[in-house]
Fold this protein.
Amino acid sequence: MRPLAIALFLSLATAQSAMAQGADTVQHDKTFLTRRDVGLAGAALGATALLSRWDTDIARASQGGRFNDSSLRRLSLRVSKVNETTLTVGGILVYGVARLAGQRTVTDVALHATESVVLASLASQLIRGPLGRSRPYVTHDSDQYDFNFGAGFKRGAAGFDHRAFPSIHTSSSMAVATVLVMEMRKRHVRATPFIAPVLFAAGLLPGLARIQLDQHWASDIFAGAAMGVFSGYKVVSYSHDHPGNAFDRVLLKASVMPDPHGGFRLSFNPGQ
């Protein structure tokens, strides 16, 4: 399992590196994507390809020995419920409650967390569908390079079996973790250096659970983690560098107020 430990270290290192870049600087990115982003994506892809060499070893190890435990499997099933759907719905609910309560900071963070999950999920789906990488259980943990191009678009089990790369569970949870850490940095929260490792470790848990459930290769998890960190970093940095962007302008300046008839009304204040 040493390659998996290396993958986890690289994931956390990638996240911490993005946080370092996320500190406030005098010069801000003018566009959403930059040349630096392309370079980071290339480095992440190279690390993913290198890790894939040990995918079968990690998959087999996760299904046997001390890891072949019914209680661990039950725990993994519970943890795997933290996915793009639950995180998106949770983010929307927190955003709505915060808007009603007038909590601008919570509203801002919830909005950016939800945006990052949606971005990471959509980007992952655009890759998974055409690539058609088989999940570990399909090849009995024996062939991590089994690709059926376009198979990920199929409906039902036929499509699900070939949507391994990257892991949306991991990209979504790491996107939220990244947003939370970056928002704390932006607000100069002193406890950030201590809380950040905990958040990133928690963000990796759904991915680890998916490995234990034989749903994903280790390289799927690493790629998902990198994509989640990237999505969270870009959403927060771009939103704060461009406070007049369309999403924030509409969603952060809209107000939900109770009306005299027991309902609610939506108002918009561009001067907020």
